[in-house]
Amino acid sequence: MLAVTGATGFVGRALLGRLVRDGRPVRALTRSGPSGPGQVCIGDIGPDTDWRAALAGVRCVVHCAARVHVMADHHPDPLAAYRAVNTAGTERLARQAAQAGVRRLVLVSTVKVLGERSLPGQPLSANSPAQPEDPYGRSKHEAEQALWAVARETGLEAVVVRPPLVYGPGVGANFRALMRWVAQGRPLPLGAIRNQRSLVGIHNLVDLLVRCTDHPQAPGRAWLVSDGHDLSTPDLVRAMAAATGRPARLWPVPVPALQLAGRLTGRAAAVARLTESLQVDISDTVRQLDWRPPYPVDIELARTAEALA
């Protein structure tokens, strides 16, 4: 029996659907809603969550639930809020999983553990040092450390997967907004950007998570994942345009002008994500786990566009 936390979220819902289609016994763990066959409501996640009933008979947990990164967090203490769910909640789950006889826990973390950017031609790798910059990234890094500690103490098999930006049907936030603008034929001042970004389609991420539930080489490591085909921001817009059947309307506004506009409008971080590079090297994942992204970018973007229509 597999269990998926955050089973109604973006990643958890896609993973649950894949496991059901594969005919694998799976239990959905949700924060709210009724408990019943195949689903257990565990309430809010934190240091006091009681996972015991939800973990009975489970051999592997894929932990997708998290307080996710938001662009404008107005909590009076954002780091404490992230830590309560992502760090303390993960440690609590890991300890109770080990006590319940769960063999393996797969944690969906984030590439933000390694930082917000990569140098040109130097993608982040499995050996890159942790350099989280924001409360979300820091809480996820601490969650990883807590999981490794529980694994050392109990023998629980711990696996960490660090995705970059995840997109696909149901995606929200800035990716959804950008794709809608492209689909509406809006001109975008992004034509002069010369960066490289790694992305991962939801179906590619789910495929690796499934691999990590039973691959003998997966435990004890943090794995990077992507579509295996990095894009500049203008290339992403062009690919979105092709997926939506619209022409790409790109204006070549100089990057310094974009950065200035970002500072003046309080959106410097958003502009940085559009203009800077953030690449990951998945060669170690490909080699050690015998895994390759099964779906090309154009297929994943087409699925995303179809869901937006």
Automatic annotation (TrEMBL):
InterPro entries in the cross-refs: Epimerase_deHydtase (IPR001509), NAD(P)-bd_dom_sf (IPR036291), NAD(P)-dependent_oxidoreduct (IPR051783)
Pfam families: Epimerase
Listed CDD domains: UDP_G4E_4_SDR_e
Gene3D superfamilies: NAD(P)-binding Rossmann-like Domain
Region described as Disordered: spans on this chain: 119-139
Superkingdom, natural source: Bacteria
Domain NAD-dependent epimerase/dehydratase: 3-218
Protein name: UDP-glucose 4-epimerase
Phylogenetic classification of the source organism: Bacteria, Pseudomonadati, Pseudomonadota, Betaproteobacteria, Burkholderiales
